[in-house]
Recover the amino acids of this structure.
C-alpha cells in the first residue's frame, strides 16, 4: 500500500477544497467528496488481497464459516457507517453523523445477535454438564 499517495491526495484535496470554498462553498464540499471517493477506491483495491487472506484463514480456523461471514459483514457495516458519518461532518451536519454512527452500531449488534445466542447456549451447556459430573 502506498500511504504516501493517499496522504498526498488528501492534503492536496484539503488545500484545494479550502481555496475553492472561499468563493464557491458548495464546490468545496464536492472536492472533498470526490477526493474521499478516490481514496476509498484506492484503499479498497489495496484491501482486497488482505480480505482474501483473512477469509482463507477464517475458513480453516473457524468451526463454522458463518462466523467469518459475520465478521466481514460487521467490518463492512462499520466502514460504511464511518464513511457516512464523516461525510455528514464534512457537510456540517454533526447530528446526522451521530445518527449514522448509531445506525451502524445497532446494525452490527443485530448482526452479531446469533453469535451471542450461540455463546449463551454453549455457556448453558457447559454449566449443565459441569454440575452433573
Amino acid at each position: 500500500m502506498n500511504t504516501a499517495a493517499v496522504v498526498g491526495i488528501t492534503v492536496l484535496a484539503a488545500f484545494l477544497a479550502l481555496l475553492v470554498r472561499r468563493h464557491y462553498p458548495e464546490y468545496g464540499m464536492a472536492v472533498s467528496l470526490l477526493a474521499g471517493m478516490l481514496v476509498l477506491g484506492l484503499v479498497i483495491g489495496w484491501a482486497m488481497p488482505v480480505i482474501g487472506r483473512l477469509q482463507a484463514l477464517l475458513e480453516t480456523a473457524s468451526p463454522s464459516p458463518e462466523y467469518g461471514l459475520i465478521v466481514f459483514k460487521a467490518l463492512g457495516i462499520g466502514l460504511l457507517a464511518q464513511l457516512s458519518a464523516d461525510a455528514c461532518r464534512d457537510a456540517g451536519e454533526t447530528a446526522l453523523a451521530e445518527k449514522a454512527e448509531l445506525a451502524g452500531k445497532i446494525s452490527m449488534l443485530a448482526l452479531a445477535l446469533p453469535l451471542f445466542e450461540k455463546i449463551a447456549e454453549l455457556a448453558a451447556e457447559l454449566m449443565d454438564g459441569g454440575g452433573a459430573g
About this structure: The radius of gyration is 21 Å.
